[in-house]
Structure to design on (246 residues):
């Protein structure tokens, strides 16, 4: 698919794809859910009704994807591990299924989709973090998405040490044990610094679709930044209500 073909397909669709990206522990999933609640409460003339605002994620949004997610995020038994190239191909398989069975059909119906991770996580984690060939990643992303790109990607940026600290204490505020870390979260500090560098590089390369959001501060403060960025980038009324997360 040529660049012109991709743009033509983007122009034809009536839905919107908003992706939330960032390192583990940055608050990405929490902010995605706050954004979902906020959008459903609004009455923007440009946006669909609340039933057409949906949440999804990568990996794991489809039946196949849920199986792949368990494989990707749970350490395998024994000492074999998961080869980085095998890991990359599993993420690509999940994405191809997600695009064809959820993203493209829902966008064609006019839905606004809030997606927890997409192609940029693969560049940051498997490219910068794992050191895999970026041209291979780009080719696989292109095949899996069939040219689909986000209307807006929000990169929730938080210093690596802060995000790692949040992961270490996850759940303690509610008097619970820390949640067990998945296979990707267990990787070392150097790996996560490289991932952060990957997101920085992506934001510089694709400013037309990726915007940095300062993820420091309270949940309410970050939620307001996210809401304002969505209003600015998607042409929504600037004075729409910005309720605090509960």
């Amino acid at each position: 698919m040529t660049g012109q073909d991709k743009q033509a397909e983007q122009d034809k669709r009536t839905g919107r794809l908003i992706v939330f990206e960032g390192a583990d522990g940055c608050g990405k999933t929490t902010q995605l859910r706050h954004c979902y609640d906020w959008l459903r409460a609004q009455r923007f003339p440009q946006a669909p009704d609340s039933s057409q605002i949906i949440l999804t994620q990568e990996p794991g949004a489809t039946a196949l994807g849920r199986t792949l997610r368990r494989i990707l995020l749970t350490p395998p038994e024994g000492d074999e591990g998961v080869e980085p190239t095998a890991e990359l191909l599993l993420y690509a398989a999940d994405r191809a299924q997600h695009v064809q069975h959820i993203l493209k059909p829902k966008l064609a119906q006019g839905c606004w989709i809030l997606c927890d991770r997409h192609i940029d996580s693969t560049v940051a984690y498997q490219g910068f973090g794992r050191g895999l060939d970026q041209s291979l990643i780009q080719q696989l992303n292109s095949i899996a998405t069939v040219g689909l790109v986000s209307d807006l990607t929000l990169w929730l940026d938080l210093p690596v040490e802060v995000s790692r600290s949040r992961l270490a204490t996850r759940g303690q505020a509610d008097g619970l044990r820390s949640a067990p870390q998945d296979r990707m979260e267990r990787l070392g500090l150097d790996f996560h610094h490289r991932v952060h560098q990957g997101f920085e590089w992506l934001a510089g390369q694709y400013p037309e679709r990726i915007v940095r959001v300062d993820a420091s501060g309270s949940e309410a403060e970050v939620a307001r930044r996210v809401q304002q960025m969505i209003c600015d980038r998607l042409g929504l009324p600037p004075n729409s209500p910005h309720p605090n997360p509960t």
